[in-house]
Structures
1.
Amino acid sequence: MPRFEINGSPAKSHVNLVVADTGSWEQAAVFRLEQSPAVSAYVRNDHLEFTIPYEFEGVTHAYTPDFLVRLADDTTLILEIKGEEDEQDRAKHQAAWRWVAAVNHWGKLGRWAFDVCSDPKRLGLRCSAAGFAPSLY
C-alpha cells in the first residue's frame, strides 16, 4: 500500500503518515483537507475499526470509509475517495447514507454527513465554511 508523508507537521491531523489505498487520489485529498478552512481535523480511517455494515448479493460485509473529517461546524463527515463506482460500491454508499440518517435521527453523536468525492482536486469546494455542501462539486 502506498504511504504518503506530510511535509512538516500537519495542522489538522494527529498523524504525519497517511496509508493510502491509491497512488495519488487520497494524497490529493489530504492536501485539500489540510488547506480547507472548513476542516477542523481529519484522520485516514486506517486501523480505527470504524466500519458500516452493508449487504451485497445476500452477504453481509463491513464498509471501511477512507476518511473521517471534522468540519468547522462540528459535523463529522464520512468521506470516501472514489473514481469509478460499481454495484458493490453503490451498496456501501447507500448503507453509509442510511447509517448517517439513523445516527442523526438518534442525535446523541452530534451531526454526521457522508460524501463520495470523485475529484480530490475539488474537495475544498465540498467543505464550505458554512458546513457540508454536497452541491458544490
2.
Amino acid sequence: MCANHFTNHTLLGNNTQQTPLNTQQTPLNTHQTLIKTKNADNIVSRESTSPVVPRLEQAQSQSASIPKVIIRAEPTLARILKTLDADYVKVQQEALLSVLCQVLTGKSFELILSVAIVEGKLRTFVTKLIKFNECSKQPLPGSGGETTKTSHTRAMLFIDVSFLMLCSIVHTYGSEVVLSEEGGDSFFEQWVRECMVERGRPKCPDQMLQYCEPGKVDALLGQFNSPDNDFKTSSSSVNCVPPCFSGVKWHEVCHNVPGAIKEVLLAWEQGAVTSNDVKRILDVMRSRMCSLPVFATAWLCSYMQILHQDALLKPMNMVQQFLTPVANEESTQLDNFKERSGLMFQVIRKMQYDVFPPSQSKVKAMTLSHSIISRQPVSSQLGDVWEGIQKRGWIHIQATHSLESLLNTSGCQWFVTNIVKEVLNYRYQEMLEQAVDLAFGVFHLDIEKCTLALLLHVLPQYLHNRLQSEELVEPQASALAKLCAYCVFAALEYQNNSAPGSRKRSRRDKESEDLEGMCPTNKLLRTAPETSDPASLFGAPHPGNSSMSSSSSTNHSSPPVTIREPLQSALAELFHMLTVVAGRDGEVSQRTHFVCKFLQFLVQCGNDRTRLVLQGMPNTMVGSYKHNH
C-alpha cells in the first residue's frame, strides 16, 4: 500500500510538472468569448514569470539547507579549537588573528557559537579563547623586543578580537553559563567579576579605578586629545616607558581607560571642555581599538547607577556617542573594522539596556535623541518644549518625542516635579486649565509612574515645605488638586486595562481606548464644551444615555475594577498625609484648603470609581477636618 502511495505521488508530481500552467489556462479557455486569445496568452506568460513560486521554492530550499550548513560548520569549529590548543609561543600571531577575523565575517560567528552549543563545547571554546587573550596581553618573556607590526597584531588579538568575542558570548549566554565555576584569575574573568555591567549585579565604579595610575591616565588623555585623530600603539606614548621595542602591556591600558573617561566627564561637567571636544575625544578613542569604548562604557554605566537624576544626561550622552556610526574614513578601511565595531555596538547597547531598560510607553517606538547636540541643561530644554506646546494648545509629535526623551533621561520624579512647576507658574484660570490638560496628556507617556511620583514626591513637598506651600493659593491650588485627581483615576484605568487577566485587545482597540476612554485631551474638551461634568471624562454614563449605557454594559462584560500595587500603597500613604494636614488644631491654611479641593475633585471626577479610591481614607479624616474648620 505504501508503494502504491509513493507511486501515485510520483505520478501526480510528474503530471503536475508537465502541465504547470493549468491553473491559469483552464479558466481562460472556458471563457473564450469574454477574453481574446492574445490577451489570454499574455496573462499566462506573465503568470509564468511571476517570482512568487521561485521565492517559495527558495525559502523551502533555504530551510532544508540549515542542517547541512550546521554539519559543514562542525569541521570548522574543530579546526578552530585545534588552533587554540596550540602553544601560544609557537603559533604565529598573524595566522591566529587571521583565523579569528574570518570567524567574525558575516554570520560565521553566530554559526560557530550555534555549533558549539549543539556539541556542548561552548565552555571549551570560551576557555581556550580566554587562554589566548591572557597570553596576548603583554609581550612574551625573553622575546627581546617586538616590532610595531607585532605590537599592533598583539593589540588586535588581545583587545579587539578575542576580548570583544568573549564579551559578546558572556552577554548573550550569561557569565555563569560560559565561565568556569571556580572563577579564574585571568584578566577577562577578573574584569567580568569587577567591571562588566550585568542586570541585577551592580558594580562599584570606585573599585574600577583602583588599578589606575595618574601617569598612565595622563598619557591616555594625551592620546585621546591628540589632533591627528589616531591612537598610537607605541609603548612610549601609551605606557610611559622609554621608547624602543619594549612592548605595551595592554591590560594596563584597559585598566586606566576608566580613569581617563572619568577625567573627561568631570572636565565636561565643570565647563573646561565643550561638547564638541568630548565628541572628538570619544571618536579618537574608538578610531582604532573598538574595545576601549567598552571599558569606558562599563565605568559610565556603573557610575550612572549612583548619580542623581539631574546629573545623568552627560554620561548618558557619552555612552550614546559610542553608538553613533563612525565618520572617520580611515578607520572604516581598516581590517575587519566593520565586524569589530558591530560587536562593540552590540556589547555597549546591551550594557546600556541593562542599566536603563527601555520603557514601554504609549508612544510608538522610535530612536531617542540622546546625542551631544545641546549645551542647555535639561531644565531649559523642558522649559522650551513646554512653552511651545502651551502656545499651540496641543502636543505635537516632535514635542512628544522630546518629552519622552527627557522623561527617560531624567526620571519620573524630576520630570513630574518640573512639569508641575511649569503649570503653577500661570495665574489666570483659562491658562491654568489648559496647562492642567497638557500636563495630564504629557503624563500619559508613563501614567502610572508619573502618578506615583506626583503623589509620593511632589505633593509632600507642597504640603510639608512652608516655602512651597505658599504657592497653594487660588486658582493654583484647585489646578493642582484637579491634576492629581485626574492622574489617580487615569492610573486606575491603566492598571485595569493592562491587567494580565484582561482580554487580549487589538491595536485598534487600544488606540481608540487611549483617545476616548482614559485621557481628556484638549481636543476632545474643545469639541464638546457642553460636557462640563468632570465625571464624564472617566467613562461615567450620561443621564440622557442610560439606555445606551445599559445596552453596552450587557453586550460587553468587563471584570471588576480593583486597585493594585503600587497605586494602592501610594493612595494609603497620601491619605495618611492628608489626615495629618487636615487634623491640625485650629489651623486654616492653604494646605488644608488644598485637602478640601482634592477630595472635592475626587468625588466629582470619579463617579462610580470614587468609592473604590476613597476606601483607603481614614474614617476620622473628614470629621477632624470639619471639627477644626
3.
Amino acid sequence: MGRRSILALLRLLLMALVVTAVVVALVTSWEDVSPYLGAISPGPLALAFLLTLIAPYATMLGWRTMLADLGSPLRQAPAAGVFFVGQLGKYVPGSIWAVIAQAEMGSRLGVPRRRVGVVGLLAIALALLTGGVIGLPALPVLLGRTELGGSAVVLVVVLLAVACYPPFVNAGIRRGLRLVRRQPLEHDLGGRSVLLTLVWFTFAWFVSGSAVLVVATDIAGLAPTRQVVLMCICGFALSAAFGMISVLFPAGFGIRDGVLALILATSMPLAAAAAVAVVIRFLTIGVDVLVAAGGWAWGRRHDLLDSAPVPPTPTPAPSPPAGNGAGP
C-alpha cells in the first residue's frame, strides 16, 4: 500500500471517528436537555442560538487574519470551509485533531500544512489567553472566595498581555518549529494581525457569554443584574478555558459544563444552573454541526475533501522592516 493510499485510509478513519464522536455528543446532550427545553421561551432560545452562531464566525475571522498575515489570504467562504469542518475534530479527545483536519483541507487550497498547523495551534493559545482574561472576575467565586485582591488581578492581566506581545508570540513559533524540526515560517506574524485576532476572539467570548446570560435569565427567572451578567459572561469564559486545557475530554465535555454550573449556582439554584449549562452545551454542539455542514457542502463543491493537495504558492520574501520585525 502506497503512502497516498495510507493517508487516504487515515483520513477516512479520522472522519468516521469525528462523526461518531459528534453523534454520541448530540445524543447524550439531547437526553439531558430535552426536559428543560420546554422551560425556555422561544424568543430567548432563538436569541441564544443566534449568539452562539456568531461566536464561531468571529473566531474564524481571527484565525483567517493570522493566516493572511503569514502569506495565505483566503476569502471568507473557503476560510469557513476549512475552519468549520476542521473544528469538528475537537470532539475527538486531544485538541490536535482539529488542527490536523484544517491543515489537510487547507493544503487543497495551496496553503502549506505547516502554516495552517501553526495558525491553528496559535489560535488555540490566543483563545485560551483571552478566555482566561475575561474569566478572571469569576475565579474568586470558583475558589470559594468573596473577592480577589486587585493587585493579583492586575498582575495576571499584565502577564497575559505580555504573553500576547507579538515579538514573544513569534519567538514561541520559531522555538516550537525548531523543537519539531520544521522549517521556520517565511516571516513573523505582524503586531496588527495579533491585535485584530485578539479583538475577534474577545468578541467571540462576549457573545458566547451573552448566550449564557439569555438562557440563564429565562430559566431561572432572574433580572440581568450586574452580578448575574458577570457570572454568565465571565463564568462561561473561565469554564471554557478549563475545558480547553482538558485535552482528554472532547471539546471540554463535562469539565466546562461542571465549572459553569458551579459558578452560576452562586446566583441561582443549582438545578437551574445545571440546566443552563446543559442547554448551552446542546446549542454549542448544534451550531458546530450546522456550520460544519455548511463548510462541508462548500468543500465538496470545490473538491476540498477528496482532491489532491495543491502545491503551495511560493511567498516572496518581504522587504526588511524599518523597525523591529514584529511591527504591522
4.
Amino acid sequence: MHVVATAGHVDHGKSALLRALTGTDPDRLAEEQRRGMTTDLGFVHTRVSVAGDGDSDGCEDVAFVDVPGHERFVPTMLAGVGQVTAVLLVVAADGGWMPQTTEHLDALAALGVRRGLLVVSRADLADRTQRDQVLARATTELEGTGLEDLVRVEASAVTGEGLPQLRDALSRVLAGAPRPDPDSPVRLWVDRSFTVRGAGTVVTGTLAAGTVTAGDELVLPDGTAVVVRGLQSLDAPVAAATGPARVALNLRGVAPAAVRRGTALGAPGTTTTTTSADVRLLPVPGRTAARGDGRGGGRGRGLGGEDRWPEHLVLHLGTAAVPVRVRPLGPAGSGPDGDRVGQHGGHVRLSLATALPLRAGDRALVRDPGGHRVLAAALVLDPAPPPLARRGSARERAGVLVAVSEEAVLRGDPAGELERRGQTTRSALRALGLRAAEVEALAAVAGVLADGDHLLSPVLAGALRGRLPGELAAHRREHPLEPGPPVEVVRRRLGLASPGLVAALVGSWSAGGSPVAVRDGRLVDATAPAGAALPPAVQRAVAAVLGDLERAPYGAPEAHRLRELGLGPRELAAAVRSGELERVAEGLYLTAGAALAAPAVLAERLEDPSAAFTASEARRALDTTRRVVVPLLELLDRRGATRRLPDGTRVLLRAGGAADA
C-alpha cells in the first residue's frame, strides 16, 4: 500500500479529483458536503497498476488523505501530510498559485516529502495560455524545494480530461517509492478516534513503518498500555498491517477521549516522551528572497525574518500541534558544518507545552500561526538532551550537535548516539527509536563496556580507566590504613551509573595488565599482595598483639591493651584487611585462622568430642575466658562447626566446619 495526501489552496478541486479517481467522496461530513469545502481530513482509496510491484493482478492499494485548503485549517492539513508516501499538489488552472499553495508547499518541503504529482486541476475552465502560465509559475515555486521533479499532469474532474494520465503518472511515481522497514518500531499518530457499539474505542492513522498485529500491546505517551483487539485497513479486517498503510485499530483499555488527534501509540520502550528536545532548524527548502512568501513579502529574511522569535510558535509533528519556546544554542546563525541558516538558525532547544513521544530523526516543522507561515524545518537530534546548567553549556552543546550528520540520525546510529552520550542504557537508546538488535550489538563493539543495561563508550571508558590509578593513590594518601577506596566511592567520583562499570573498567585494561584490581569491594593495587601493607607504627602494634596471642592463642587482648598499643577501630580494621588479625565480635580479635582452628582444638581437648559440651568446658579447653568463648562459639554456630542445643550446650558438627564459612 501507498499513502498519498493532497495539498493546495482552498476550492482548487482536490476533493473533486479524488472523487473522480476513486468513486468515493472524501468529504465525509454533512457540513463539508453542504458547503462544498473540506474542513477535516478525508480518506478514500483505490487500486492502481504499479510497474514491477503490486499484487498478482499487478495492482496495489493507494490510500488518499484529503486535506483542507483554507488557511484556518492549516493545522488539520499538517496533521494529514506528516506520514505520507507522496503528494498530489493541486493548483487550479483558473485560479493559479495562491498563498495557501505556498504554505502547503513549505510544509511538504519542510517535512521531507519529495515524491508526487503537480496537478493542474479544473483544466476545463482555462485555455492553453492560462494553463501554461500556471505551470510556469508552479515550476518557479518548486525550484529548490526538493519537489522540482513532481510529475506535471493537467486534469479535470468534471470532463475526465487527463484522469487516465493522472492515474498512469501516479503509478510511475509510486513504483519507485522506497519501502520502509517492516521491523521498525511501531508508532501510529492518531488522526481520528471514536466509539463503535459493541467494539469500543477505535483510532485511525497512517502507519508510516513497522508492523502492527492483532494482540499487540502499545503504549500511550503517558505510559498507559493498550491492547490491539483487532484492526482494519481500507475498510477490511486484517490480522496485521505493515507501513505505509492506513489503519484503524480497535483498542482495549482506553477511552476515545484519551486518544484524540495528536496522540501517538507506540511499541513499548521505543519513544521518549519529553517536553524538551534538541533539534536542527533548517530554512524551508526553496525559500528565497526572489520567490517571496506568497503574501508579497520576501522569503529570505532568515527563519523568522525578525530580530527575535515570535512569541507564539507551534511545533507540528505527526498529527500533533504543540506550542513551543525556542532557545538558540551557540552563536546565532551557526548551522551544521558552519552554514548560516538564517538569523536564528542552526541548533536550538525546544521546550514543548505538552509532552510528545519523540525519536531521534523525527522530521517536524515550526510554524508561526499568527503570521500564517512555516518558519523552519526541524530535525530532532536528541529527544533526551542533557540539562544546560553551567555557563557556556549551551555553546558546548551546539558544538556537539554540529557534528551530528543528518544521514546518520535518519538512518539510526547507535554507536554515534553512545559516543555522544558517553554512557547511557540500552533502554534509553531503544527509546530513541533505534532498532533493538542494533542496540544489543553495541555491547560486542570493541571498547564498549557493559554492565546489565548500562553502556559506556570507548572514548569515555578510556578516559575514566586512566583515572583509576590516581583515584587509588589519592584515597591511600587520605586513608593510609585502607588498601583502597570502596567501589561505590569510585563509582561516584567517576560519575558512573553502576558499580559494575568500575569492575568492567578494571577488566578492560590492555594486554599489559591492569595496575589496579577489585578485591573485597575495593579498588586496590593489583601488584600488592592480598593483604595491604600496614603503616610502620600500626605494624609494630599489631606485632605486639600477635606476640600476646602466640603465648595464648585464644586470649584476645582486652580493650585497655589495644588502647595502650594505639589500635583503634580503623587500625584494627586495617589489620583485619591485611590478614594479620581476625575479628570475632565487636572489640574481640584473634590471630587470623584461630577461629578456623578452634573446632579441631576442641575435638582434641574435650573429654568426649562426640558429646554435648558447655561453654565452661569449651573455655577450659581453649584456655580462655568467658568474654572470648561465648562470642567465639556463636561464630562457630554461624559457620556450621557447632550447634547450640535447647539446654544451652553444644555439639561439634565437624572439626573443619569453619573452613566452609
